[in-house]
Specification:
The structure holds two protein chains of two kinds.
Chain A (H helix, E strand, L loop, with lengths): L3 E4 L2 E4 L5 E7 L5 E8 L3 E8 L6 E2 L7 E4 L5 E5 L8 E8 L7 E2 L3 E5 L1
Parallel strand pairs in A: 2-11
Antiparallel strand pairs in A: 1-3, 3-8, 4-5, 4-9, 5-6, 7-8, 9-10, 9-11
Chain B lengths: L2 E4 L4 E4 L4 E3 L1 E4 L5 E7 L5 E7 L5 E4 L2 E4 L9 E3 L8 E8 L9 E2 L3 E6 L1
Parallel strand pairs in B: 2-12
Antiparallel strand pairs in B: 1-4, 3-9, 5-6, 5-10, 7-8, 8-9, 10-11, 10-12
The chains are: A mainly beta, B mainly beta.
Chain lengths: 112, 114
């Protein structure tokens, strides 16, 4: 099925551990995004990639790194997880400037 | 910077009631405006959009009109159903033409009682 696929769906980490959240889209979209969703905060942009080979910081980039591996894949890495990074993470993609974004189903991350 | 303000929830209504969720925005230029819906345990789905002033977006009985003079994009539905229970997000994309993501409101939790 066409869309945005995120893995894993759930993850529990200990403080200081590292992990990579994976995202892939099969719609040939140029732009991809990582958001985090926290209660009462809505969604906030972490990083985005306007096209293959480029990445830019969003509103809340501290503690994260990203890689745009190819046009399909955009990964988010936590090098040293902290409890403040407990959140639900969403990946999204976009093909043109005036269309709605397509979101993945999310990764629920808990850092203990 | 850009910002979106939407009414606080939860909003609780009876089935078949009229729904309005208010949304106002601050942005430079001419943003595109969106409403997204999130059902429990799922990601966000695009509900409707409008890309210029006076445009009306509509889908599944929901409507919203882009009002530049009042910088608003209020969501309405004439008769809600229990299945409409979800969290609704108003969002904008700035008119600069870049790929720098959406700005979201904090979300409004809608609860429809039978």
């Amino acid at each position: 099925n066409a869309g945005v696929t995120q893995t894993p769906k759930f993850q529990v980490l200990k403080t200081g551990q590292s992990m990579t959240l994976q995202c892939a889209q099969d719609m040939n979209h140029n732009s991809m995004y990582w958001y985090r969703q926290d209660p009462g905060m809505g969604l906030r942009l972490i990083y985005y990639s306007a096209s293959e080979g480029t990445t830019d910081k969003g509103e809340v980039p501290n503690g994260y790194n990203v890689s745009r591996l190819n046009k399909r894949e955009f990964s988010l890495r936590l090098e040293s997880a902290a409890p403040s990074q407990t959140s639900v993470y969403f990946c999204a993609s976009l093909v043109t400037t005036n269309y709605g974004y397509t979101f993945g189903s999310g990764t629920r991350l808990t850092v203990v | 910077g850009d910002s979106v303000t939407q009414m606080e929830g939860p909003v609780t209504l009876s089935e078949e009631a009229f729904l309005t969720i208010n949304c106002t925005y601050t942005a430079t230029g001419y943003p595109s405006l969106f409403w997204y819906v999130q059902y429990p345990g799922e990601g966000l789905q695009l509900l409707l959009k409008a890309t210029k002033a006076d445009d009306k977006g509509s889908n599944k009985g929901f409507e919203a009109t882009y009002r530049k003079e009042t910088t608003s994009f209020h969501l309405e539905k004439g008769s809600v159903q229990v299945s409409d229970s979800a969290v609704y997000f108003c969002a904008l994309r700035s008119g600069g033409g870049g790929a720098d993501g959406l700005t979201f409101g904090k979300g409004t939790h809608l609860i429809i009682q039978p």
